[in-house]
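@channel sequence for tomorrow's demo:
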Amino acid sequence: MFKFKLTLLILILPVFLFSSNYTRMLEKKSMESRNPNLIRFKIAHFSTKEGAPSFKSLNLDGKAYKRGETGTYLVQFISSVRNDWQDEIKKMGGKLYGYIPNHAYIVRINSSKIGEVQKLPFVQWVGRYKPAYRISPKLLKTVRSDIDGTIMLRIQLYKGANRYSITDQLKSLGAKILRNEKGMYYDYIRIKIPVEKTKDIATYIANMEDVNWVERFYEPVLFHAWTRWIIQSYHTSDMGSASAGWNAALSVDATHTPVYSHGIFGQGQIVGDADTGSDWDNMWMYETSGDMNFNGSGTTFSGTPGTKFVGYQTLGDNLDGASNNQKYLAGKYLGSTGHGTHTSTTIVGDSAWHDPSSDGILARGDGIAPMAKIAFQDISTTPSKTGTEGLDGLPSDLNNLFLWAYNAGARIHSDSWGSSNSDYDTYAQQSDQFMWEHKDFLAVIAMGNAGPNSGTIGSPATAKDVVSVGASQSGAGCNVEATGEESTVWQNPGDPEDRYGSGWNPDGIRDDELETMVWFSSHGPTDEGLRKPEIVTPGGHMVYAGWSTGSTSDGPTADGHNGGYSNTSATSNGTYLCQMGGTSMATPAAAGATALIRQYYTDGFYPSGAKNSSDEFTPSAALMKATLIASTRNMTGYYTTDNGSSSSRANVPTNGQGWGRVVLDDALYFSGDSRKVEVHDVTGGLNDGQQQQYTVQTGSNTAEDFKVVLVWTDYYGTQSSSDPLVNDLNLTVSDGSNTYKGSVFGTDGYSTTGGSYDATNANEVVWIEGTNAANKTYTITVDGYDINHGPQPYALVICGDLGEATDTSHIYTRPDTVKFYYASPKSKNRENKNGIGIAKKVYAPTLGLKKINESNKFSGAIERYIYSNDGLR
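structure tokens (generated this afternoon):
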């Protein structure tokens, strides 16, 4: 029976997750999350009432542990896992690793102690953590090789493992060792093997006791200024054509750039960026060699910050690699792209010719947060024209990548690269791991350019806690050659091959369709069903930023093409621009927007809408992400469906556009605005069974939608799990007559009543149309529904025509969280036929004579435990 279930899940699960009925999948997962006996691995789901399935036919069942040796076990608890329960196991010498739904943890402990663990009154079931749980099911199927007939595997090891003994064993199997590195929480080995040996070698590795996980390693790749207006105001009425006279040097104004008009340009903010290298002395960065603060590998930041670069970490080299000589030949991309110069300039580029905060001038190549600084990490070795540009500088553990940037002062990190792997893998886990341990740090990661079909997202954008960014059309190009000093006329539509405005539409859709996703933008969901992306920013082929070739003779033209007009004045400190397109360009735009959001809070603009030092505070990553989602608008164009198409559209939320395109003015209140904002950055968080309620009153303005966004930085998941969510919060909004559950939407892009709570994603939204939201009193409830590693902090952002914010929130305990347990630690006649689970759980509301009598199934003395918020007693 279990063998059949195993085969079914391995072969069918990915197809099910990529089906068109995403809502039905979420409802099914919500139902599964409420089954107290269910264990949910990627390789199989099973009930602990029936016991674990056998994997002997796959040589992945493992062997029983000898008494006294360290074993790895799966321990399932009777309900949401309390911290004091975990502490009891730690006192026995156990070490807890990843969480497995439902209500289970991986535990490594001396096998002589496992009997004591089984007798704990809050433990329901214990079983060996089998080799089958340690291997990606994708490795058990036929896999395609890389170009040279091989594939790479990434092995995650428990700390303390003898890495060199393991590599010796792998060499004997014919594996080539590529990396053998220490990580922050685990250690890592990367190998290359012949593709035909994949299943055998991966199975051998999974049977190693010190292995936590083995998966295929996918080589990370790059995911190749109107953006300022689009993401601040979406006010496009004056941007229609060249005749409108929009020049490269534009003035800040409250209509088009309302965030800039209040003096927010990114001052005091530091953004991390890991990419191919940045031309640090171009005219948008204007750093001198004497001011540059180069750091080597590692996590320690040192030295004196420069003017624009607080630090430049050389994980690959210290070259910008900006020569636009890349070409595709014999299955490889040769040459370099200038990718890192483009992304870093998009975030913080600031023309050396002016100061936008004093003169109000926005040069064409300026970034989204032009007065922020950058902590740059060069993860690429710049190749020759006949070499291949790879991201060989990326460490095996992204915790180490992020920690250097964090130590340099960055609280936002932009990553315009990723793999082709669409599940919650090791990179995704590491991203969530770092954010859980550093809850004021937000990673902003590109979705990828493999769209528009569903499930084309690439890791690490598959992580729960990061902001995954999709790309929308940018809507404009240039029709006049320009250097950084010149004023360039814009046109719409525009493209280097369309200088006179006839329209560029290789997919049948003009590039000025700002409501349309770019056709190549990858779509979710992840293999586990996480909705992705969260947000969208412009990333079409009209995103301009600084550029440099390091040559005065072979540089591209001002618009980045090698044909046409030659810019012979180019130098290594470049003074001209290049256009690129991709989620690689949308991501730094989103990171720059996040820097503006962070400054809004750190400079004290909330809640009054004016800068006030007494209101300054440091926002959590959850609040920055919630503000981004709160600022989104529904996109009505093409490629917005789950499975993107140039002929179909869908309203939010979808796996095409996520929650929509960012318009910051919708979520940042400034004095005099009709749209108000209320935020709650709850750093203490909720334990299981706790609820927090808020009351808000709306006004009579029917033009303002009412929007509530809940975001939490969840405890990191486990790669072997079919559901990486660990702590589940529920959002409920009620006006007394209608009750809305978070993320339950109709086809019109607004919340609807009924449905099931989202048990998959670490964000929930209620969005009510303005005509239905006026003159209402709303009760907003955040419920700690299933907290397995608490307490769980969260952020809540409320937008609309709101009355004055009042402190009406309070925390209380759900009535059904007083739980009664009956257990007989010495009983041999236990309810669980496997003889391991010993606890009987009864919820207080259903407690009665019949339930009490059921305790007679246990022989011997009966012990009664009452579980409430103040402990087990």
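heads up for whoever presents: The mean pLDDT is 81.
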